[in-house]
Amino acid sequence: MIKNNQIASALLGATALTGTAIAGEVMAPPAAPAPNNGSWCDGFSTVGKFYEDKNAPFIQSLKFFGRVQLQGAYINGDDVDGESFSDTLDEVRRLRFGAEMKFLNGFKLKGNVNLIDDGVRDGEGREYSYQDWDQLKLSYTLKDFAGFDEVSLTYGRHKVKVGHESHTSSKKIKTVERSALSNKIYDGRYTGISVDAERGIWAGTIGYFSLDESDALGSLDNHGSAWYLSSSFDLGGSNLLFDFFYNNDADDSGDDEIGVGYEWVASAAYETQLANWNLMVNVAYGDNGSSDYVKEERSGKFWGVVVMPSTYLIEDKLEFVARYSYMGSDEEEGVRTNSRYFRADVLDHDVDGGRGDSHHSIYAGLNWYLCGHNSKIMVGAEYETLDAPEGDADATTLWAAYRMYF
Secretion signal: which residues (predicted)? Predict the structure, then answer.
């Protein structure tokens, strides 16, 4: 099975990034790029469109896409010993490139790769090269099937979304970094099978995934596994979202290769519009697992909440966003802060690895949309406190970032 997955990975990868396909002797010429009317912003939505013909019998579209995310931060705080620390860090946060091809009237092949290994947090250098696949998926979609408006079956390397912030792509998140709660319950890339369905105001997903770690497609045999459920309701001006992730491997051996870090988690989120404000509230509750799976001081239940209001100060141009996040746990190391940059190794400090039983953070920032989410500048300030086994630690981080995608 491992060999088969390696072959499948190679075939999927080659097709996703080159766009080559067997299409017989007839293939429509590439569609002419849509005029951008002299606006460089319009170019973001057209530059990657290589080919499109919805009436073509074999290949309906082929497009390329990528994203560049740069950021810098100044952090100042006090560690568990009461010692002060501070530093300035800059990082290429993400550098990705990929392709998507729709073919045979229902199939879609999508893949993108990570092209940066930035070691700033470890005091190391920056390497531009292939690292791994972010996603690599083959899907087939049917319309008006079995009473649903749309049903899709997908196999491949998934980005499994748990919690509201993870359902928002890094291209469009409103804060420089997701909350610590989001990073705890959402992590990893999983190889597996998912079924997506839509009917009316409802959309849902069920997935079964392998915990085999790989830079492309992992094996589905003889490894830990996990189940995933997601359900959302579009209520017209508001949205209700439920996610559930269950790690089968946490019950016995504790040897899952990706390292989920918990046994299960349930998340519920509500997003709505109140006058000129957008408000998102996300609550989560889960179990880290028993001491057979994780260290005893990291076992037991955990919980958390995220509240994020935002509003435009200048319509579609300048946005204000705030966020409050809290996590708590039964055990003294049951929750953990973000790695950026509170627990960065490059800092000369002791924060107990960022682990504790209570973590609070508050963030406030501004987003300047140069070309919508395609090109934007983000600034923000975040204050966080951690109750760690050896004492309390806190820090203030000032952020500046540039985000671009096409």
Answer: 1-23
Q: How many CB atoms lie within 10 A of CB 340?
A: 21
- How many other β-carbons are positioned within 10 Å of the β-carbon of residue 148? 18
Reference 343, options 71, 70, 75, 72; nearest CA is 75
For 375-392, write each residue's pLDDT tens digit: 999 999 999 999 999 999
pLDDT tens, position by position, 95-143: 999 999 999 999 999 999 999 999 999 989 999 999 999 999 999 999 9
By 3-state DSSP, what share of the chain in percent is helix, strand and coil, each rounded to 5?
10, 55, 35
Q: Given this model, what pLDDT does residue 2 score?
A: 41
Residue 119 and residue 126 in contact, taking contact as beta carbons nearer than 8 Å:
yes
Query: For tokens 């568990």, what's the residue?
Result: 80
Each residue's pLDDT tens digit, 32-71: 444 444 588 999 989 999 999 999 999 999 999 999 999 9
Cα separation, 41 vs 316, whole angstroms: 14
**CA atoms 210, 212, 214, 220: torsion sign:** negative
pLDDT at residue 354 above 80? yes
Tell me the domain boundaries of the chain: 2-405
Choose which CATH entry (2.60.120.400, 4.10.910.10, 3.20.20.450, 2.40.160.10) describes domain 2-405: 2.40.160.10
Whole-angstrom distance, CA of residue 258 vs CA of residue 360: 27
